[in-house]
Design brief:
The chain is α/β, with parallel strands linked by helices. Helix content is 30%, strand content 23%. It is globular. The termini are close together. The structure holds zinc ion (ZN).
Length: 452
């Protein structure tokens, strides 16, 4: 007997961001993710209180690379953690790039550069469906999450108690994945699931793709530009498949960190990591690499000469084009120059394919702000009056409520814990998902006793 098993949320309790949970009994402690919370125009937030127990944690299980799940892991080393980080190979590659990128933005706010290298050295890769040991008497197995490349749900066996931690999951079919897997066949005792879309209806993806296709086709007919702000990993690659299906001649320009993430994604185009549909698409299009279509151009020095001048040059041509660029919420990055260059022409379109958090420039724009300042942070502030048309496309990388219901009816847990959702989403999801016992909405820092 090793005492009661508890789960403590150090973040992502009643909020989205800084996912960090610790499963613990008297002798063992396992962290599930350890991320930061990004905030517009303010420093990011750490999971609160995890520093104090970093030394006690045996190992970390990392569900996927997004910094709201991975961004605080190096800090655990700064606070005395000495264990291993268990994840998948693609997640290791993507996370390392995101950590380096984040260090450029926030420097030593949470951790030092040497902690980044320590964390990288401590990463251990596992495949889906491979059972491995994470502490004495504690084992883990990954299942597909359908969220981003390398993303995993984890089933943990803790002295015979089965616990499922979903991380971020998506139930919808996307260009690279077939939605999340229903893990194992046995009933699971405790399910810790994301409920990001707990109070949101997710439109049918095929319909959203058709709407985007129609918008782009019309813009192309009037020789206009379509500017698409997008997150580097995940949505950008999905959209390149969508554009790849129907744009064979119109140029598609790819800018910012998307290029690096395309290279990593292409490396993992293998049946272990992506849907078999990807191979059918490649065959049909005669491609070796989905991101190297003849009409796709990555904006690099090698391809276009001076990238900054090339972005400006695009504004002077009257050829139609699609421009896919970071950052996804328009907070910074090359999208600012594209907004300046193309934003003042009525015929152009700003196609917004992702969630825009409160306080971001992207949110202000979709809520109607038309006078914006771009490139402020790189010392070239420019005021732009947006004249182009602005359209939203409601893609989501997260599960619908129906998806979570399906997961719960398959796993039949004794206890359900809803995380990674704000108060409204969590409350609504809690009402909808009640099945005998109501789901638990954790409070940050307060341990929940698990029904082991
Ligand atoms: Zn995520």
């Amino acid at each position: 007997m090793t005492g009661k098993l508890t789960l403590t949320a150090f973040g992502a309790a009643g909020e989205v961001g800084r996912s960090c949970f610790v499963l613990k009994d008297r002798d063992r402690a396992i962290a599930l993710d350890c991320g930061i919370k990004l905030r517009p125009k303010q420093p990011s937030l750490a999971p609160s209180g995890v520093d104090k127990i970093a030394r006690e944690i045996d190992s970390v299980v990392l569900s996927h690379a997004h910094v709201d799940h991975s961004g605080y892991i190096p800090a655990l080393f700064k606070h005395g953690f000495q264990g291993e980080i268990h994840t998948t190979n693609p997640t290791i590659d993507i996370t390392y790039e995101l950590w380096k990128d984040h260090f450029k933005i926030e420097g030593e706010r949470h951790w030092r550069e040497e902690n980044l290298e320590q964390a990288f050295d401590a990463m251990r890769a596992h495949r889906y469906h491979q059972r491995y040991k994470i502490a004495d008497g504690v084992y883990a197995t990954f299942y597909r999450a359908g969220h981003i490349l390398g993303g995993a749900q984890t089933v943990i066996e803790w002295d015979g108690t089965l616990i499922l931690y979903t991380g971020d999951i998506n139930d919808k079919t996307t260009p690279l994945f077939d939605g999340f897997e229903l893990p194992g066949n046995e009933p699971i005792d405790i399910v810790i699931t994301e409920a990001t879309n707990g109070n949101r209806i997710i439109p049918d993806r095929e319909q959203v793709n058709r709407d985007l296709r129609e918008t782009v086709t019309k813009a192309v007919q009037r020789k206009a530009k379509v500017v698409v702000p997008s997150f580097a990993i995940g949505r950008s690659q999905e959209l390149e498949f969508v554009f790849g299906q129907f744009l064979d001649e119109i140029p598609v320009y790819i800018d910012g960190m998307i290029r690096l993430m395309n290279a990593i994604t292409n490396y993992y185009i293998h049946p272990d990591w992506v849907s078999p549909r990807v191979f059918r698409y490649l065959k049909e299009k005669g491609l070796a690499n989905p991101f190297e279509k003849e009409n796709f151009t990555e904006i690099t020095r090698e391809n276009v000469g001076n990238p900054h001048e090339f972005r400006r040059f695009l504004g002077k041509t009257d050829q139609p084009a699609v421009i896919l660029s970071t950052s996804g919420m328009m907070e910074g990055g090359p999208i600012h120059t594209h907004l300046e260059v193309h934003g003042q022409k009525q015929e152009n379109v700003l196609a917004v394919p992702g969630y825009q958090a409160e306080g971001t420039l992207g949110r202000a724009i979709i809520e109607g702000q038309r006078e914006i300042v771009v490139n402020e942070f790189i010392g070239r502030p420019t005021t732009v009056n947006l004249e182009l048309s602005i359209q939203r496309f409601q893609y989501s990388g997260h599960a619908s409520l129906e998806g979570i219901k399906r997961l719960l009816s398959h796993t039949q847990p004794k206890q359900t814990i809803l995380i990674h959702c704000d108060h409204d989403e969590g409350t609504h999801a809690g009402q909808q998902l009640t099945n005998g016992t109501a789901p638990i909405l954790p409070k940050a820092g307060v341990p929940i006793e698990l029904l082991a």
